[in-house]
């Protein structure tokens, strides 16, 4: 077995860390740690070995789209970028240099972008890149606080390394697929149709329910059958958990499968008729204020545009505004609320930090953001400094950390940054101005803490 530690020829008296994975998060973490004066050994298995989705020998490869999504200052992901720029993000700086026209989105020339980052990392005198696969975590990495390790090996982490992480955290805390159901803005529901009820419950109920009659149900089933699906990648051979099947797979098994699964109507009488409908779609609150709801059991690989079209056929969802659409991906990630703390440090192994998509965030920007924080925190630990307060929950970074550490563990699924992860607003703001208001508050809050403690470490 090759472990990072065994091959670390980098002996020095300077504070030092090891990073495994030279993707977006790993490069950003290395850059941030080096900026604080820490030596970094960065292990990247390319070009000796490639994951099924990677194919460039450069570091920081964008495996699919060349877009970092919206750069609009009033969007959650735009805000996250603004905060990252304040922390001198290497990835954001490179994205600005190699930007290509893409409307409000920040998209890049991926080759030049990755080549530039590779040159920056390799040219940094404090960073040593070792092109080698790490097969398992260094044996004492959890306890060695003077030489912390950051694991940033991404959603397609190699099997033996994932196994090694699993033996530290417990294998049941590690997932290899995410199955995400759509999330809807509650204000966009038609409340004259949707009704509150919990199954077999006399009380007011915790779920919002969208009732269907027989015609509506079969019309819907047909639409799911006909809808366009996202083709599976070669490494995504369907190996679904029975309890978490995509709705289109359930429909393939029979016209009534959904009625015996997530669309089961029994015990949910409609207030208008006093009878159970023919089928029901249940919506469950995403936050305490129920400002967003998820479609229970509606994980799917329908394309995004087809999800919007087909799900708006559901009574009560005709005008639904989707905050997030459903998906199912190959994705290695940990059950963050059980495994890590707000410093991205493994609770059971404080010398080990996680960064990137492995932590349970979703997306290029979010993964990079978790690289910034992990890099700064690990460097601070290596330097013998105490870790200072992390970004507060009303900032984009803080909202992501809150999702990772404060979600009910058994319901934890990876998430993009979105305003639903932020604390409830304390005053009423017109919907169209909310993004801008939140962004202003976040940047203020971010700056206050950043200035008062000279950064987040
Ligand atoms: C197929 C696919 C498509 C995606 N498309 C998008 C998209 O379009 N937009 C978006 O926002 N997000 C997308 N994501 C999600 C996610 O944002 C990206 O995967 C992102 O690159 C994650 O960043 P990361 O740094 O955590 O991991 P990565 O960027 O994957 O970096 C991990 C690095 O670790 C290396 N590595 C892995 N195992 C080892 C090992 N054992 N030893 C040494 N090195 C190792 C890998 O070679 C890789 O370079 C996609 C994910 C997948 C799997």
Kindly describe this structure.
With 457 residues, the protein is α+β, with helices and mostly antiparallel strands. The chain contains twelve helices and 17 strands. The chain has helices at 24-35, 76-86, 90-97, 110-123, 159-169, 214-226, 247-253, 304-311, 336-339, 364-382, 396-406, 431-452, and strands spanning 16-20, 39-44, 67-70, 99-100, 105-108, 127-131, 149-151, 174-180, 183-185, 195-196, 207-212, 279-285, 292-295, 322-324, 327-334, 345-346, 349-354. The strands form four sheets. It has a six-stranded mixed sheet with strand order 6-2-1-7-17-16. It has a six-stranded antiparallel sheet with strand order 10-11-12-13-9-14. Strand 1 (16-20), helix 1 and strand 2 (39-44) form a beta-alpha-beta unit. Helix 2 (76-86) runs parallel beside helix 10, helix 2 (76-86) runs parallel beside helix 12 (431-452) and helix 3 (90-97) packs across helix 4. The longest helix is centred in the C-terminal third of the chain and has 22 residues, at 431-452. The protein binds flavin-adenine dinucleotide.
């Amino acid at each position: 077995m090759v472990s990072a530690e065994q091959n670390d020829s980098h002996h020095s008296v300077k504070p030092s860390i090891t990073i495994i994975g030279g993707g977006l998060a790993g490069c950003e973490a290395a850059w941030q740690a080096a900026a604080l004066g820490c030596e970094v050994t960065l292990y990247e298995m390319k070009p000796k070995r490639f994951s099924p989705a990677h194919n460039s020998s450069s570091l920081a490869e964008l495996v699919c789209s060349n877009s970092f999504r919206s750069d609009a200052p009033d969007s959650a992901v735009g805000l996250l970028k603004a905060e990252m720029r304040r922390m001198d993000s290497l990835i954001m700086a490179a994205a600005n240099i190699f930007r290509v026209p893409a409307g409000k989105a920040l998209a890049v020339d991926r080759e030049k972008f990755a080549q530039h980052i590779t040159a920056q990392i390799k040219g940094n005198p404090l960073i040593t890149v070792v092109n080698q696969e790490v097969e398992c975590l260094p044996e004492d990495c959890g306890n060695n606080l003077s030489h912390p390790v950051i694991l940033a090996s991404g959603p397609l982490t190699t099997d033996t390394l994932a196994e090694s992480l699993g033996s530290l955290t417990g294998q049941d805390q590690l997932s290899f697929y995410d199955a995400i159901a759509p999330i809807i803005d509650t204000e966009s529901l038609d409340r004259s149709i949707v009704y509150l009820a919990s199954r077999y419950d006399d009380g007011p109920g915790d779920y919002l329910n969208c009732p269907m009659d027989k015609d509506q149900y079969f019309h819907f089933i047909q639409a799911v059958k006909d809808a366009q699906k996202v083709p599976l990648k070669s490494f995504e051979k369907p190996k679904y958990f029975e309890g978490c099947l995509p709705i289109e797979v359930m429909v393939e098994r029979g016209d009534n499968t959904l009625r015996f699964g997530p669309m089961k109507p029994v015990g949910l009488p409609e207030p208008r008729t006093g009878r159970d409908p023919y089928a029901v779609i249940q919506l469950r609150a995403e936050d305490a204020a129920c400002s967003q709801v998820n479609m229970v059991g509606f994980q799917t690989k329908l394309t995004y545009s087809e999800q919007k079209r087909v799900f708006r056929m559901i009574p009560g969802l005709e005008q639904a505004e989707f905050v997030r659409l459903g998906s199912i991906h190959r994705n290695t990630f940990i059950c963050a609320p059980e495994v890590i703390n707000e410093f991205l440090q493994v609770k059971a192994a404080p010398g080990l930090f996680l960064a990137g998509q492995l932590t349970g965030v979703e997306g290029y920007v979010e993964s990079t953001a978790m690289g910034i924080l992990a890099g700064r925190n690990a460097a601070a630990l290596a330097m013998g400094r105490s870790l200072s307060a992390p970004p507060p929950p009303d900032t984009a970074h803080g909202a992501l950390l809150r999702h990772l550490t404060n979600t009910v563990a058994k319901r934890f699924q990876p998430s993009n940054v979105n305003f639903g992860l932020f604390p409830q607003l304390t005053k009423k703001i017109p919907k169209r101005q909310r993004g801008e208001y939140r962004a202003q508050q976040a940047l203020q809050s971010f700056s206050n803490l950043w200035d008062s403690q000279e950064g987040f470490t």
